[in-house]
Amino acid sequence: MAILSRPRRPRHTLLLLLLAAVTIVTLYYRGSTRHVVESLKSGARDAFAPLQSGMESLLRPVGSFFDGAAHYRSLESSVARLRAENGSLERRYIESVDVRRKLKALLSEEHLAWAGNLPSVMAEVVGGATSNFELTVVIDKGRSQGVNVGMSVVSGAGLIGRVIEASSSSATVLLVTDPRSSVGVRFGPSGVLGVASGAGAGHPLTVGYVPPGTALKKGEVMFTSGLQNALFPPGVPVGRVSSFSSSSGAVQERIELKPLADLSHLQYVDVLEWQPPP
Question: Could you tell me if 60 and 42 lie in one domain?
Answer without folding.
Answer: yes
